Amino acid sequence: MNIGSSETTREAPHTVALVNSFNFQEYVLPEHKNYLDFSFLEWFIGFSEGDGCFCSRIEDNRVRLSFEIGQKDAKLIHKIRTMLGFGTVSSFTRKSERYWRYKVEDKKGIQRIMTLFNGNLVLPKKYIQFQHWVTMGKAICPPSFLFKEQRVHISLQTGWLSGFLEAEGCFYAAFRVKDKLFPDTWGFDQKFTLTQKDVYGESLVLQEITVLFQSNVKLHLVKKPTCYRIEFCSLKAHTILVNYLSKFPFLGRKKITFRRWWRIYLRRENPLYFKNEVLTLKTITKLKKLCSQINL
């Protein structure tokens, strides 16, 4: 049973405090680790809020907890295991496609996960899922563990958004030509998007993200009743993203996607690009191919 499912946690959360920074003072590194990489932990929390699952099951009349992330990106899953220094990695097949799973289910590992996420979550729905998960597993909580009734504000000064975008973000571009004789009619349609189901106020988090990217873009409903998307199309928002990801880069295959998208951004950023370009059929084919390969 996934404790985080909407069917099991529909009661509305009460008001919680909002803090401005992550706090890893209670997190205990595995014995063989001697360096706390704050940016990675922030990235990991953001990625987990997109793709992670706080799970539980009843076995031999006892509650068993686990934490899981499933991905097609095998190298990324192994990287997570290496960076954290605990948990296991396995593979499984779903609809004829191979996936990889990072999983924590031993007592020490679960206790580390508890102290890592406690007070450090951003999304309201993940906060509620984590709260239920901890409550069900209170028998194995670390000594002196106190659940923190707080969430963290999003900032461009932490790695959280990089992890969240790596899990949930999408990148898109297309090359358009109305008349190849007139450079003013040539250009790229380029954007990056985030989509979230609004369970406990996640649309407000999306709105916070629009502020970070200095955008007046509006949320639009993509699936009834409560699935919303934001699309960033402006060069200004793209410049903010490029600068942010230069400081807090993606860690998995999406960094290749972003690199391809970034090459198109560089052409848009340079106002002289099309004035210096001879738009032949070969050039048009090359630019369209560049766009089509973003998500390969």
From TrEMBL:
Keywords: Chloroplast, Endonuclease, Hydrolase, Nuclease, Plastid. InterPro entries: Homing_endonucl, LAGLIDADG_dom, LAGLIDADG_Endonuclease. Residues 45-134, 161-265 form the Homing endonuclease LAGLIDADG domain. One of its GO terms (molecular function) is endonuclease activity. Pfam families: LAGLIDADG_1. GO terms for cellular component: mitochondrion. Transmembrane segments: none annotated. This is Putative double LAGLIDADG homing endonuclease.
